[in-house]
Amino acid sequence: MSLEGSKLFSGREISSRRVSGLIQLYLQDNQTVSASNPFPDIMDEVTYLKILKDPNFWISQELEDKLISTISQSVDISAVLYHLGTETLITNAYDLLPLDDSRINLAELIHRIPILINRLTRTVFLNIQFSDSKTALFHFQYHTQHQEKWFDAIFFQGMLNGLAVLFELKDYSIKMTKTRLFGIHVAHKDLGDEIQFGADVNEYEFKWKEEPFYLSRSKMTKDEMSNRHKVMIVSKGDTDTEQISIIDVNDVVDKSRELAIENRDLEAAVEVLKSFKYELEKKQLSIAKDLRLAKNIQQGLIPEIIPDWRGIQFWAAYHPMQEVSGDYYDYFPFTTDTLGVAVCDVSGHGVPAAFITALSKMLFMNYQKGKPSETFKFVNRDLLDLVKQQGYTTCVYALIQDDFKVIYSLAGHPRPILLRAKTGKAEVLDGAGTFLGMFPEGGDTYEDYSVQMEPGDKLFLYTDGITEAENDKGVSFGDDRFLALIESSSHLTIQETIEFIMQSHKEFTMGTDPMDDITLLGWQVSPKLPEFNEYKYSADVYYKAKDYKEACANYQKAFEILPRELSTQFYYGRSLAYSGQFEQAVSLLESYNRFKTNNYLSHAVLGYCYFKLDIFDKAESEWKKAHSLNDENLSVLYNLAMVYLKLKNKSKMKDILGRMKKIDPKYKNILPLEKKWESMFQNV
Length: 684
Prior knowledge:
The chain is of the alpha+beta class. It has 3 domains: about 15-250, Alpha-Beta Complex (H-NOX domain), CATH 3.90.1520; about 305-525, Phosphatase 2c, domain 1 (4-Layer Sandwich), CATH 3.60.40.10; about 530-680, Alpha Horseshoe (Serine Threonine Protein Phosphatase 5, Tetratricopeptide repeat), CATH 1.25.40.10. The chain has 21 helices and 19 strands. The strands form 5 sheets. Strands 10-19-18-15-16 form a 5-stranded antiparallel sheet, covered by helices on one side. The protein has a 5-stranded antiparallel sheet with strand order 11-12-13-14-17. The chain has a 4-stranded antiparallel sheet with strand order 3-4-6-5.
């Protein structure tokens, strides 16, 4: 398209000075050295050459808008626009000075800025008001047929910065206070902290504090000048004591351009750093997410509570130093008369250590040998094969028998501590053995040791994170302090003892960061075991006789002695359910199901309690669990059918009836259910 024949860009409202600088930036960034027009879809070759070579060439606002829109898609033009504004003010300020070479101050030059605006654009006019002698308000108002642009906001503020450069201001502020725009293409913070968008005017506030210099044209003759640059004089003070410096406009412009390039490079570096920071934050979030997942998985591997067993009560404290831990403890039911308990401390911390704890759990479950030392031999062998000596674990592993004899073995771990109820004295038990997963010959070092516990005795397994912890003075918690605390708590229950020790440990190390993971596991042979056995025996007799009231009374007394004994929990919960005490039964059976997930009867009874409490969604859930554990039990299916009858769920009830017929077509409750189903849904 020719310049003369263009209808699209026929208007001439804007000086091409601004867009000329942006095109040169575009050519530089795209490493374009050819003189050919890089925007053939926007303008012709003649227009392109005039924009680059003729400083007095004018173009339409529409053409400028299209060029800036295209350039800004590949180049960040914000900083360049600002510096182009500064450069424009500096290069044109000479023509605004008095022709008689008299000097003017900053306020007088500000009043002349509208002359410069008229030389640059026909789309906007400028009104200036002074709120005081050192505060000027610039109101840029657009003509009706033209719209304000986001790039104008940056360019005009850059022009005001040119005033500060010329008058060598040190303490000043320039900010946009109002705009008709409803947003700016770039970040607002450099334009102003509190911009009023959607206003009826575009306003800037220019404040300065110090007494500014004066500015005048140079009195030097052309013969005295080495070149024909525009030269101005900056002065300050009275005529007799006047301080004078000479400004070569070209030098100022060159320095401004150098500063613009440096700022642009700096901003590019900042953007790269921001990008790195963003990527780092993304990776940190991803790692944090993975760590939370690992933490949740590990929490599933480590028991929250070990249930009471055969008159023995357990309690544990577990405090990881990080999201995931290298400490690990667990229990392993062998037979009705033996229970295995292990405490491990993996080398290192974090995810690698947590990985070995997961392996340890798997291996201890696989190798439930009759002697702890035999189990260690197999675990050591498999850890060597799996971990390749890239990590190891210390461990204490004990088998508790129903006569309270404890057989244990050590693998580089702190020795157990036994507190005798009769004497109130704590003693460190014997034992030795090397790490698991480090030495192929380690199997030869593991031995079995035994100790006989009596009612009231307590035994403690722990990791060295307890004794090696230090206070803010560098003093370690130590073995002696640990033993003294155990002895001072001889009158407490095992739960109270563990909590007392950990509270004392917390107070000792207060103000310091944890140095290691901490685990403390203890158990006590109940001193009231004979009473428990008596109540439990009487309760079982009443339960079999279906005297649930008396059964509940005796189970309650047994439960108070050993509240985490699972058999007592289960039968106490069933007795409460059969005697109509559904809410109390729910509490006990839910607790039981957290430890025993595979007992279909506990889910069946719990579903019955929810049903009687009209909590049908939970009744359905529990009876589904019961059915999954025993899918041939017709009574559970019958109960599910009753739930769907209550919920008026026609399709699910029909499905349940079909399952019942497949198992036993002659089951007595099928026909009554079908009649209820037909009666309930005959109008549907």
